[in-house]
Design a protein that fits this description.
Elements lengths: L3 E2 L9 H4 L5 E6 L1 E4 L2 E4 L5 E4 L10 E8 L9 E6 L2 E6 L7 E7 L6 E5 L5 E3 L1 E9 L1 H8 L3 H12 L3 H12 L7 H6 L22 E6 L5 H12 L6 E5 L11 E6 L3 E2 L3 H11 L5 E8 L6 E3 L6 H6 L7 E4 H4 L10 H11 L5 E10 L22 E7 L3 H14 L5 E7 L5 H13 L3 E5 L6 H11 L4 E5 L3 E3 L4 H9 L4 E9 L5 E3 L3 E2 L5 E2 L20 E3 L6 E5 H6 L13 H11 L3 E12 L17 H15 L20
Parallel strand pairs: 13-14, 13-15, 17-20, 21-22, 21-24, 22-23, 26-32
Antiparallel strand pairs: 1-2, 2-5, 3-4, 4-11, 5-10, 6-9, 6-12, 7-8, 7-10, 15-19, 16-20, 17-18, 17-19, 24-31, 25-32, 26-27, 26-31, 28-29, 30-32
């Protein structure tokens, strides 16, 4: 097959890209070239770069690419073929129009593929440029993360290729939020009608009505909003103030605004395309920017979290609703835009809310936030709960764990199964024997063999009597006395699977407030490393929220749901990533995962296994590969994170 030239045009390219050679691509797998773009034949289509032009093996490269603003933002996957094997990188999403990735091409690379989208159907994607970087330039770009740069260089010197590659990703993969104005300037482009093609029939699409609250507003603010609506690329828009007496059709889409709010030129079109892709959605919200000039910042929001919304209106008014939703809503004309969206979201079902993950709004003033104090503690008659603790010796960890559990826990009906995996130290045996004799709640289950966390947990679950299971590491300590009641508050809900806690390092800094898929290339603890009272991204460090997964260091799940998905995978994932895998299998059955950040425990992460942060990459490589192959589709695009944020930072950062 002859290689076709990648479409050109769109953004006015900077000199470095304008000087680079065009990059040609051809369909490789599950994709067909169309006259005006590509057609994905599956949820993982692949394009092949024609040759290695722009990808010199062993060199650092800077890759710039764009996707249509009317396609949902997705992180592409870049695949370097090395013979019959390959290495993959999850790239930044072009959610602002253009994206940029810097990385190193493996020395043995024989071919390069890219998967631009994760959904079937028409899509637009183009390579704007690829240029090799000199080592000095790469070092300069990585110098913002000196610790990671040091590890990368050190690993390179001693031939630890995988360890070096991982640290280069961390060193090159994040920029501070304070750099957003210049970062954004390099990643925005003008709309291109030949590239940004509608996916739905706009002639038959609904009208978008901007309903503006102009009470107390100046004429200039009203005109600012009118002008932004008039500048929309979508042709069927209207703007009314609440005193104009707007007549809405049930098919209309409504944008509740405040005078002075501005819309991005493609905002209405993006909402129209979103509702066409997701006809079940009645509400869709978007991101926004705040500030001006050097103080400009994005507010990137996670995918819909009904749990987080119960505690705080994190969406604000940057949302669009179907007019039919307003038909049964009394007083909606008089309600303020923020209060109206908050009210509609609070009454919406979990499956009727979606997110357009692009900054489509510049608000005149910040949304009036709503924070609600909820007594998120189980108060009904207590069901039986079993706590499962796998262990092997390490009495220095196990003793304080059991002491805090048995002494501090207020819950009246729980038993403890300590699954002893070949402990040999006399002090450990004496501790377990003594506690078992003194406390009828505790039972020791002996299980010999190689350490297999999944098998130990599964065995403990079978031995327990509880209707609910808590899997607890032996290097944890209870801080919150009613921790079981708090976990049970969410775990007892019919649509919830796993529930985790907020875990702290012994010094008080955050160790876990949920798992983000794709972080570090596979999965990681986003929000870690800050002080306990730091609110974190979208207040998720201090408020309960939906996540894709929680750590098995402290996880509650109803027994029937645990059994329904077959428990932990003790065959393919005996040690690593079995907790994340369990949460994803629960999600596949429709059960949500929640991190209850008002439940505190101390966790000496991986202390009983020697400190996971320093292990070589070849340790548990087979498990990481099995997990990645099983869950690549969700790893590339965590629905509870944001594709505009870096996967190589513990807190909010730009990719």
């Amino acid at each position: 097959m002859l290689c076709a030239l990648a479409p050109q045009g769109g953004a006015e390219l900077p000199p470095s890209d304008a000087a680079s050679d065009p990059i040609s691509m051809e369909p490789a797998r599950d994709v067909r070239r169309e006259q005006d773009g590509f057609l994905a034949l599956s949820q993982e289509p692949w394009l092949r770069f024609c040759g290695l032009k722009g990808f010199p093996p062993g060199r650092f490269v800077e890759l710039r690419y764009a996707a249509s603003v009317y396609d949902a933002p997705v992180r592409p996957i870049l695949r370097f073929w090395i013979g019959e094997e390959f290495k993959e990188h999850i790239l930044p999403s072009p959610c602002e129009g253009v994206a940029l990735w810097i990385g190193r091409v493996p020395c043995e690379t024989t071919a390069v593929w890219i998967s631009p989208t994760n959904r079937s159907g028409a899509f637009s994607f183009r390579i704007l440029g690829a240029r090799p970087l000199g080592r000095i330039e790469a070092l300069r770009k990585a110098s913002a993360a000196p610790k990671r740069l040091f590890f990368a260089l050190s690993a390179d010197m001693v031939g630890l290729t995988e360890e070096a590659e991982l640290n280069w990703r961390w060193a090159l993969g994040a920029a501070p939020m304070s750099t957003y104005p210049s970062w954004r300037a390099a990643r925005t482009r003008e709309s291109d009608p030949d590239f940004d093609r509608p996916r739905s029939e706009w002639a038959k699409a609904p009208k978008v009505v901007a309903l503006v609250d102009a009470r107390g507003a100046s004429p200039r603010d009203i005109e600012t909003t009118r002008e932004s609506v008039a500048a929309q690329t979508y042709p069927h828009c209207a703007v009314f103030t609440k005193t104009d007496g707007a007549q809405l059709d049930a098919r209309d889409l409504v944008l509740p605004l405040i005078a002075g709010d501005r819309l991005a030129p493609d905002a209405c079109a993006c909402f129209v395309e979103h509702f066409a892709r997701h006809p079940q959605h009645a509400i869709a919200y978007a991101d926004e920017t705040v500030g001006e000039g050097d103080a400009l910042r994005p507010i990137y929001k996670p995918g819909w979290s009904p749990t987080l919304h119960r505690f705080e209106n994190y969406v604000g008014r940057a949302a669009c609703v179907r007019a039919s939703l307003l038909a049964g809503e009394s007083g909606w004309i008089e309600a303020g835009a923020d209060a109206l969206i908050d009210r509609l979201l609070s009454r919406a079902g979990n499956d009727v809310v979606g997110a357009v993950r692009r900054p489509l709004f510049r608000l005149a003033r910040a949304a009036s936030g709503r924070r609600t104090t909820i007594d998120a503690v189980f108060r009904s008659p207590p069901p039986a709960v079993t706590v499962v603790i796998p262990t092997r010796d390490r009495i220095d960890l196990l003793a304080p764990c059991l002491d805090s559990l048995l002494r501090k826990s207020l819950y009246p009906q729980f038993d403890v199964i300590v699954v002893d995996n070949d402990s040999v130290e006399p002090r450990t045996q004496a501790l377990l024997h003594g506690l078992q004799a003194q406390d009828p709640r505790l039972k020791v289950l002996r299980k010999s063999g190689a350490f297999n966390f999944s098998a130990l947990c599964n065995a403990g679950a079978v031995a327990g009597r509880g209707d609910y299971l808590i899997f607890l590491n032996n290097d944890t300590e209870v801080v919150t006395p009613d921790w079981i009641e708090r976990l049970l508050f969410f775990a007892s809900a019919p649509d919830v699977g796993a529930v985790g806690a907020k875990l702290l390092y012994p010094g008080g800094r955050v160790q876990h407030v949920g798992v983000v898929l794709g972080m570090g290339g596979v999965a990681g603890h986003f929000g870690a490393g800050v002080n306990e009272d730091d609110r974190g991204w979208m207040s998720r460090n201090v408020l309960p929220h939906d996540v894709s997964a929680v750590t098995g260091a402290c996880m509650m799940i109803e027994r029937d749901k645990f059994d329904a998905v077959g428990g932990f995978d003790e065959i393919n994932l005996p040690v690593e990533l079995n907790d994340v895998d369990l949460c994803l299998r629960l999600a596949a059955r429709g059960w949500r995962t929640i991190c209850h950040t008002q439940t505190l425990l101390i966790h000496r992460q991986s202390a009983s296994r020697g400190g996971g942060a320093l292990r070589l990459q070849r340790v548990y490589e087979t498990e990481r590969r099995a997990f990645y192959e099983r869950w690549r589709a969700v790893i590339r695009d965590d629905p509870h994170f944001h594709p505009g944020l870096s996967l190589y930072a513990n807190s909010e950062a730009l990719p």
